[in-house]
Amino acid sequence: MSAEGAGPTPGPEPGSEPRPLCPEHGQALSWFCGSERRPVCAACAGLGGRCQGHRIRRAEEHAEELRNKIVDQCERLQLQSAGITKYAAEVLPGKNQRAVTMASAARELVIQRLSLVRSLCESEEQRLLEQVHGEEERAHQSILTQRAHWAEALQKLDTIRTSLVGMLTHLDDLQLIEKEQEIFERHRGHTY
Predict the structure, then answer these.
(1) Exposed / middle / buried, residue 45 (Cβ in 10 Å: 0-12, 13-18, 19+)
(2) Phi, psi dihedrals of residue 16, rounded to the nearest 5°
(3) Which pLDDT value is given to residue 160?
(4) Can you tell me the distance from the alpha carbon of 78 to that of 154, in angstroms, rounded to the nearest whole number?
(5) How far, in Å, CA of 69 to CA of 72, rounded?
(6) Which among 15, 44, 47, 154 is most buried, taking Cβ atoms within 10 Å?
(7) How confident is the model at residue 65 (pLDDT cuts 50, 70, 90)?
């Protein structure tokens, strides 16, 4: 790639902020050096430039690729959120109902058996009923804990997705490229 014929750099569009220039050549940073992972100007990328022979591509192409990666990440987060929402809506209520049913069945069984020998074991009946109640409470607490965990996970995923969408909306190509590593390191590992 050569810097020859690059001509003067176009001025900023009306209403937009001026784009950063190459500190060495004073030209627009309209190229991306894949070897050094940074934006460069046409002179840096051309013959005799510091990035000659490196993997060079248009900055907007690299930014578009980053945008596509962020959109893919947002879609994955949306699918995870949908899965968690479905789990919380469909599975947890079933677990709760099973816990209630099992506790009710256990309570009935205890009452039936102990009523046959009530005169001999009033204290044993009370102990067993309290044990069943304790198990029911533990089952309910477990379900409440799971519900809180998944609600927090949904909130975190929504926050990440909102952050990514904000970056897509507010960052220009160069800012997006500069924050590439930060974006994907910050949001890596947030899967459920």
Answers:
(1) buried
(2) -105, 160
(3) 86
(4) 10
(5) 5
(6) 44
(7) very high
